[in-house]
Amino acid sequence: MPQVSSQTFWIDTAHGQLFAQSWTPLEERGAPIVLLHDSLGCVALWRDFPEQLAQHCGRRVIAYDRLGFGRSAAYPGTLPLTFIQDEASGSFRALCQQLGLEQFVVMGHSVGGGMAVGCAAAHPQACQALITESAQAFVDSEMRASIRAADVQFAEPGQLERLKKYHGEKAQWVLRAWVDSWLAEAFRGWSLDEQLAQVRCPLLSLHGDHDEYGSRRHPERITALASGPATLQVLADCGHVPHREYPDTVLATISAFLAS
User: Fold this and answer.
1) Over the stretch 196-248, which tens digit does the pLDDT of each residue have?
2) Keywords assigned by UniProt (predicted)?
3) d(CA 46, CA 40)
4) pTM higher than 0.85, yes or no?
């Protein structure tokens, strides 16, 4: 595999600094890939996936902690219910401006996939391709039930310590931002429909057939409503984190998609 160099950055925003990290192959080709993490995630929780992705695709890979997560500054207050569509004009825009990203590929996992859709829709000239992984396209009862069950599990002794390892004293905020946002009655009608209609670039949607936070209806809706060419790949015997459960398949699929 090609050698990859890593670099860290601090991105200034109106509400505090974001932590970002990049992985760059020696022979870089094509637009960089920007990764958007899931509801409880951060740069560190991507583990070795960004480096592997850079090696397989020959592209620079950039990941960042959203405000309130990981090593980034605490979020100022309660997360608004517009947080998914807000990312494209907020932290994501600040990252692109300060790192000089004129063109990019955007990839998001889980809620990060929904944010990636918004970024592709808001930056149609700059976004060369969109990849969603285990993304939710709307709110359904099965997803809400899974989130309630996870909330009960995190209330057990020692469980919040798992989040504190990555988010420090922000861990309780991270948990409540996830649970309370998705279970809010005012959020029941949320969907990606409007943003998907504005996506013009090629789209790859990856999804596990045993995803506990979203059935196959989610990637089917994503690929059906996007205006550009769309590819759906459902992974058999796979849950909510395909890049961790089947890394070789995910890396090969993404590499082939970007090469085409």
Assistant:
1) 999 999 999 999 999 999 999 999 999 999 999 999 999 999 999 999 999 99
2) Hydrolase
3) 11
4) yes
The pLDDT value recorded for residue 2 is 67
Task: Decide which of 3.40.50.80, 3.90.226.10, 3.40.50.1820, 1.10.260.40 is the CATH code for 4-140+191-259.
Answer: 3.40.50.1820
Tallying the residues shown for the chain, one arrives at 260
Domain range list for the chain: 4-140+191-259
Residue 169's alpha-carbon distances to 8, 78, 83, 92, 163, in angstroms, are 22, 15, 21, 24, 9
What whole-number distance in Å separates Cα of residue 108 and Cα of residue 34? 8
pLDDT digits (tens, 9 = 90+) for 100-135: 999 999 999 999 999 999 999 999 999 999 999 999
1 has a pLDDT exceeding 90 = no
Question: Which residue, among 202, 58, 212, has the nearest Cα to 146 in the 3D structure?
Answer: 212
| pLDDT over 90 (residue 138) | yes
